[in-house]
Amino acid sequence: MGKRLAAEFLGTFWLVLGGCGSAVLAANFGGDGNPLGIGFLGVALAFGLTVLTGAYAFGHVSGAHFNPAVSVGLWAGGRFAGKDLAPYLIAQVLGGLLAGFILMQIAKGSPSFALDAGQAGAFASNGYGALSPGGYSAAAAFLCEVVLTAAFLVVIMGATHGRAPAGFAPLAIGLALTLIHLISIPVTNTSVNPARSTAVAVFAGSGAIGQLWLFWVAPLLGGLIGGLIAKWLGEDRP
Fold it and tell me: Are 56 and 25 in contact (CB under 8 A)?
C-alpha cells in the first residue's frame, strides 16, 4: 500500500504542477496576443499530457487515479476496494497541495506576478458566477462538472477494460481530459478533480475557497454516476 499511495501522491503532484502550472505560467505569457502564450488549447493539452504520462509512469503501481472522483467512480464501478478510498484521497490531496505550493514559489519569482483573489481563474482556480471565466452560473457549473466527470469515468473504465486494446488506455484517457478542458475551461476553468481544485484554491484566496464545495460535490457525484453507468454497460462482464 505504501508504494501505491506514493504513486498517487506523485501522480497528482505531476498533474497539478503540469496542468495548473501551464495555466499560471504559460497560458498568457507576455500578455494578450503574444504568440508565445499557449492559451486555452495549450492548457487543455497540458492537462491531458500530465495524465497520459503519469498513467504510463505510475499506472502499474497504483492504477493512476490522481483524482478523488476517479477513485470514487472506480469504487462505484466495482473496480476499487472501498477500504482504500480514504488513503487514496488523502495521498491525492497532499500531492496536489505540494504542487500548488511549489507552483506559487515559482510564480512569485517573476516581478510581474500578481494574485487578484477576485479575478476569475486566479492562480488556475475553479469558480462560478463572478469567478467563472465566462461568468457561468453555479447551476451551469455544477451540471457541467457532473456530466463531464461522469463521461471521464466512462472513458476510463472502458479504456481499461480487459477487452479494450492493450496499452492504449493512457492515450484515450489523456485525450478525454484534453477534450473535457476544451469544453469547460470557459465555464469553470475545469475541475473534474477535487484534488486539483483544492491544490490551487488554498493559495488563490477566499473567493476560490468559498466556492470549493462545488468542485468536490459535483465531480464526486459525476464520478459515482459514471462508474455506475460503465458497470451497467457491461463492466461486470469478463
Answer: no
